Structure formats: structure tokens, C-alpha cells
Hints:
By secondary structure, this protein is of the alpha+beta class. It folds into 6 domains: 49-154, Beta-Lactamase, CATH 3.30.450; 186-281, PAS domain (Beta-Lactamase, 2-Layer Sandwich); 288-410, Beta-Lactamase; 417-542, Beta-Lactamase; 592-626; 632-782, Histidine kinase-like ATPase, C-terminal domain (Heat Shock Protein 90), CATH 3.30.565. It is built from 23 helices and 29 strands. Strands 2-1-7-6-5 form a 5-stranded antiparallel beta sheet. It has a 5-stranded antiparallel beta sheet with strand order 9-8-12-11-10. The longest helix has 50 residues, at 538-587.
Amino acid sequence: xxxLTTSAAAIVGALLALWLGAAAWALATGLRLRRSAxxxxxxxxxxxxxxxxxxxxxVLVHADGTLEGSDRLADWxxxxxxxxxxxxxxxxxKGLSEADLEALRxxxxxxxxxxxxxxxxxxxxxxxxxxxxxxxxxxPGVAEPGAAILYLFDATQVRGEIARLTDEADRLAKAFDALxxxxxxxxxxxxxxxxxxxxxxxxxxxxxxxxxESAADVIARGVELxxxxxxxxxxxxxxxxxxGDRTISRVLPATVGGERRSLxxxxxxxxxxxxxxxxxxxxxxxxxRVAFRxxxxxxxxxxxxxxxxxxxxxxxRTLSFHNQAFMRLFAMKSEWxxxxxxxxxxIERMREAGRLPEVRDFRAWRNERRxxxxxxxxGQEEAWMLPGGVHLRVVAQPLxxxxxxxxxxxxxxxxxxxxxxxxxxxxxAATIDNLFEAIGVFAADGRLQLWNxxxxxVWDLDESFLTAHPRVDHLAEAxxxxxxxxxxxxxxxxxVRVATQERKQRSGRVALKNGRxxxxxxxxxxxxxxxxxxxxxSDSRRIEAALRDRNEAxxxxxxxxxxxxANMSYELRTPLTSIGGFAEMLAGGYAGQLAPAADEYxxxxxxxxxxxxxxxxxxxxxxxxxxxxxxxxRKSVDxxxxxxxxxxxxxxxxxxxxxxxxxxxxxxxxxxxxxxxRIRQVLDNLLANAIRFTPPxxxxxxxxxxxxxxxxxxxxxxxxxxxxxxQARAFDRFSRATGEGERGASLGLGLPLARQFVEAHGxxxxxxxxPGQGTAVTVELPRT
Length: 784
């Protein structure tokens, strides 16, 4: 047996110890490496699971074009097997299209050669999925140089979400534009304040209200719609709305467009976005409220003045108003009524005062009246007969607020008056039936309302026909059968129409077949009806016919008389001419020298012949004028010359009676178109009458003046004058003077003849006289 030395044993022990230590170290290192390998494998498998579950696929494209990546690539591209190269990404109608594949190749080549990043969207054939490809050169250590790494993201849902969000954004943008347009077009001022409560947006109505140039000007200057004043600071109100997160509304005065208006200003908090506001013009509303209050007060004042009792109950059936007439009518005290008693208590107090109708079951009667508050119809109306003969008309009107309005009208006097009226109507009917005239009353619609027996007898109508109240056209048709001329029936209808619609009175006459004549009239009545009356005038018609026949006979006699006078005047001219001729021969000495007395007789014969010739001429002129055949010679007439000649001829006669004669002829008298001889006759006759009836020592004035269309001559005297009765007969050619030198009822033929000559020229002759003051005759002759 080998014996080891101590040193050798020590060396061996040391070697063994070293080996044992190395073995332990190796074991520990192996165990540590094993744990590291296990951890690395676990981490690798975890990373592999994460990469497999990632929404993106990682594909490594080597420099030779081969692919390395996730097994899901074939499924995403719709391929049957995993592609090994880029070219394998398309197959028949699967995978990428040729255009997409070619574009992807170019992107990969650029990434491999230049390091340019890859960004592209791909959509495999026959697939609704969309992929986004991003990538670039492969990082060092991942693959060999020249390789590229691609990341494929499934953007199908993202694209849909983007499209949805885009549509939503478009919708919101349109809604915002519409809302902005609505705010801008709003007729009321609207604004927005930022978180700092400064104005950031105002509409056009706001700009107009504050009379600014533009919205930018308003925002820049911070112009407030409502002026700041103690207790109504607009910014403080907006701050209160923001801090309290509540809408604040108040009515404030403001100047809008130069006018003082009342605005309802509203501030609406918008959270962190600030505060919005708007203002509504409530000036008309405030005025309406004031007017309504005034109307209510005026209505209550009016109701208090009514003679009818008025009581108003609120929705809770308590008395809210009563007038003085209500208290008097039901003998109630104001203190008790002012307490607002309930409806039932008021009814009971009426019963205690004896102001309700007597009923058997008062409770049931009261409950029925309580139903007035909820009546479905417009209102209720009743007639109450109270003890003592008092008649009440009761109107119950439900109010929109659930209350009730009661009106109590005392109709006792009306009932008495109605009874008296009925009596009067009966008396009137009896009176009308016994009148001699036929009477019918037609209503405004043309229907016969009232008639008497005389009316029925005249038209021979049945009582049943009249009681049906026929219209006037049907009545006229029935009455036409009794008329001598049936077409005259339309006159009845027309008269009634004029009386009822035009409110005018018309009358006329009508003849019946039986020979009777009636005078009828349609008179409008105050109540809108028309009264049609018929009076039998058959007797007066017969008298009228007799008088008409007599008048015609007198007119015929007058014409015969006129013709006789004219013929006699012509017949008298022949012997008168012979007498005048022989008298002139005797005066001329043809029968020898006459004795002085005979010569005087001959001159008297000649004067009488001259006067008789003048009278015959006057008679002929009068008869010709009456027959309408007075001959006139129409020429230019110098009125001043004609007047001067007439004055010259009258001067000697006036001088013989010691009468002062004055003529004033103005140059304006001028000329006119007429018969100079007839005008001269007019002046001669008027001057002769004036001289004849003016006493000695009197005065006669002839004044002539002209105008644009007429010439006027006035002959006045200061003689005895004429009474109105004498003036009325002055132009009557058949009246006689009462005496020489005295104004009688006529002035002979001079005035009648003068008037006829003047009127034949289209002029006028007027006479004015006062007893003891003289007479003035005015002649007006037209220029043409």
C-alpha cells in the first residue's frame, strides 16, 4: 500500500479541495445559468405571446427579399399559405393587388437602400379590411445589413371610427353654423361671456341695441346692454349665475335704439365655457300688465256703479268681490262680506234675508247651484220669483280660473212695463184694425209683420196667407192681380226696399181693377221697419178729373180769346188807318180851310188814333208773346244811345208835371246783342209809368251800368209806392188801376209788355216798392 507523505497528502487534499470547490462553483454556475436560461425562455415565450397578441404584425424583409414574421400574415392577406417572399403576397385574386404590391416593393427598396421610412395603406383583394404599413431599415442586431422591418396595423376599425368621427364633426360643425346663424338672426340681443366674464360674442341685434358699429367694436370696448347702476350691475349678475350654477332672470330698464325699454335679461351658466345671456323686450308686456291692472280696477269700479247686483267668487269658492247693489239687494253688511265668506254661507244668508225663491228641498237646490262653478256650457241663467213680487234675473258665468261671476238684475219694473206694453199692443192692434186707411208694417228683411183688416180687404188676401208673414215680393205678386196695371206691383216692392234699407220716404198712386184709386206711401220707422199706408182717393180722383177737364176747357177758351183779340186787333187796324188817313187829309186842307174849332177836333181825332194804334200794337205784342211768336231783330245795340233817346223823349212829359228827371249812364253800359226797338219800348213804358204815378215835385232817376255778362238799367221814383198785394198784381195785364195818379193793382199794359220783351231777350225785370217810399224797376239784359 502506497504510503503518502504528509506533503503529498496535503497537496492531494488541496487538489481535491480545489476540485471540489471548482465542482461546487461549476454546479452553482450551471444552476444559475439554468435559471437564467429558464427565465430567458419564459421571457422569450412571453414576448412571443405578446407579439402574437399585438394589434400589429412584424415582418422582417431580408436583403434577398425573403420574409420572416408572424404566422398571421397569411390570414391577414387572405392567402392560403404563409408567404416566403414579397412576391408571394399576391396570388390570383387573393392577397395584394399588383399595384399595391409594386408600391410596397418600391417602399421596401427605398427603406433598404436609403433608410427612408415606409408609410402606406393596403387593402387586400376580396377583403373589407384596411392595413396601415409602417417601417424602415431593420435595427442593427436584428437582421443583416440591408434588411427592412415592416409593422402592419389593422386600421379597419380605426378607419370606421375616423369616418364616424369625421361625420360627427361635420354634423357638429353644421349644427354650430346653424346655431350661430340662428343666434345672429335672432331679433333679440344675445351674447357670450368668457370665464373672465368679458364679452366674447354678440349678435347683430345686440349691436343695433347699443348703437355700435360692429360686433368687434362692442367686444373691444366692452359695451354693456344694460347700464351699470346700484343694484343692477350686469357683470355682477353674470358672476352670480356662474358661481351659483343657476340661471338668473330679472327685468331691467335699458336704452335700446334710442328708446327707453323694459328688458327681461337672462344669464345662463355654461360651466367652464363662461356665461351666455339674452334679453327680451317686455315693454309691451309690462304695459299690458299695467293696462290689465287698470282695466281690472276700472271694471270693478264699473261693476260697483251698476244697478244690478254683482258677486264674484274665487276658485276656492270664497267671495272675492261684491258691489254696492249686491249689498242693498240682499241686505248684507259690508263687514261680513269683506271676510270672504264661502258660497254656501252666502246662499244661506240670502235665504235668511228672504231673498231666495221658496223651494221644498233647500239643500238639494243649493247643491245644484254649487254646480255653477263647474258648468260645462257658457253660463246659466235663471229667473227668481221672490216673496213680495220681486223678479230677479240671475246670470251665473263660470270664470276661466275656476271662479264664478253672479249677476242679479231686478226686473220687477221691466215685468210691470212688459205687462203695460202688452196692453198697449192690444190697444194698438184694435186701433189699427179700425182705421180707414189700409196699413201694413214690413220688417227690415222685407217680411210683412203687421196689417189691419182694411189692408186685407183692399188686396183681397186670405188670412192664412198673411199670417205666414210673406215677403214683400210674394205680397206684391199676389197684389198685382188686383191692379189695373199688374206691372205696377213692382212699385210696392221698391218702396218697401227704399224705406227699410235706404231709410227714405216714398209715395205714389195706384189704380185697382174695380176702379178704385189709392194713394200709398212707405215711411221708415225708428225701429228699422217700414210702414206702408194706402188711402182711398177715388172720390178726390173724380173731382180732380172734373177740375182737369174744366181747366182744359178754360185753357181752350183762353186760346180762343187770344186768337180773337189778335184777329180783332188786325181787323181794327184797317178802319183805324182809314180814320187816321182822312183826319190827316182834313188837317192838310184837302177838304178846304177848316174853322179853328174844326181844326182842334181833327187834332183830337189824330191824337186818339195815335193812342189807339199804340194800344193795338201792345195787344198784338202781348198775344204774340203768349203764342211764343214775338219777332225779335238780333243786332248789336248801343245801350247808351237807346237810353239817351228814351230819356230825351220823356223829359218833356216830366217837365209838364214839374218832375225832376235825372239820367246817369255809365260808359260800362256798352253794347249787347238784341232788338233795339223792343228795348226802347221797354224803357218808354217804364218811364211813362214812372211819370204817370210820380206826383208833381217828385224825382225820377234812370241809372245805367254794365258788367262783363249783363247790362243793367234801374228806373226809380219817389212816388206813393205799392203794397205787396199791389206788387203781386202789377204784371197782370187784365187788372185795372184804381185811379189816375194812384198806384193801383196794375199799371196797364206797360209793365206786362216790358217784362215779356225783356224775358224774350233772356233777361229779367224785377220790381221793388214800399208804400210811401217809391218804386224801383230793375232791367237785366244779357250781353249775348
